[in-house]
Amino acid sequence: xxxxxxxxxxxxxxxxxxxxxxxxxxxxxxxxxxxxxxxxxxxxxxxxxxxxxxxxxxxxxxxxxxxxxxxxxxxxxxxxxxxxxxxxxxxxxxxxxxxxxxxxxxxxxxxxxxxxxxxxxxxxxxxxxxxxxxxxxxxxxxxxxxxxxxxxxxxxxxxxxxxxxxxxxxxxxxxxxxxxxxxxxxxxxxxxxxxxxxxxxxxxxxxxxxxxxxxxxxxxxxxxxxxxxxxxxxxxxxxxxxxxxxxxxxxxxxxxxxxxxxxxxxxxxxxxxxxxxxxxxxxxxxxxxxxxxxxxxxxxxxxxxxxxxxxxxxxxxxxxxxxxxxxxxxxxxx
Length: 334
Hints:
Blueprint: H1 5-30, H2 55-62, E1 70-73, H3 78-84, H4 88-95, E2 113-114, E3 119-121, H5 128-141, E4 148-153, H6 160-171, E5 176-182, E6 185-186, E7 189-190, E8 211-214, H7 219-234, E9 240-245, H8 265-270, H9 274-284, H10 290-313, H11 319-330
Parallel strand pairs: 1-3, 1-4, 4-5, 5-9, 8-9
Antiparallel strand pairs: 2-3, 6-7
Helix pairs in contact: 1-2, 1-3, 1-9, 1-10, 2-3, 2-7, 4-10, 5-6
Coiled coil: 279-306
Domain Dehydrogenase E1 component: 45-320
InterPro entries: DH_E1 (IPR001017), PDH_E1_Alpha_Subunit (IPR050642), THDP-binding (IPR029061)
């Protein structure tokens, strides 16, 4: 499956947007947490899991999705959300804990959701897979050709929810696609120490469904493989597993000392940065000029800068607002 020119440009621009968003968050998250790291302090308190380096996993499949298609993400969700088209201003405000956020600041970084584009953080360790399967079942029962995509980490493929969901999805031929982001580590445990199979796409054969492995964090190959999976799901032929070899340049969480990693690992990975490689491809194939690429990069950065500015200027929710929302949803007369 060839990548249409406009899709190729979209993939590049969204990857730049994701990378710049995550790099900006590195700086913002550090505010107020020094000189001694304090996870509960600062502009954005709480844990923070960033996905710089893992952009191809999200953009390759989201390039095929419609607004009506469902995406569930784990606790490292920003790249999925951005690629699915989540409102960037409201997403950033939510991470900041502001009233203008997607959940009025109550969910934060690990609990993002945007029903307008059918995106949600479904939980950790494969917990989002049953949610995605439920969305896929609903689409099938309604006679729609919508698909559901569940993103998980490679460590989550060892969880019960992974196998239980795949069994039912295969049995009922649900339009479900499971994208496994193999970034080599389950927190600090290497894949080789936790998983009996070399690649998790092989597990598809146990359920009679196809599995694909995308090597070397390649966004173009991810687009091609994802396109086949999405078309198969829309035709009513059932689920697919895609595992992509990807790389996180940052720790499992911000503040992670990363003592489990070789000191040369991240610099070596960055030598084959997917954004740099795709830019080279665009220029070599005369798919875009230097000026067009500069315009795409500037547009992506401007949108990110505006989102952070929006979040900073937004107000924090008033304490009584939480009770008002509770009463409104519970039916209790406050």
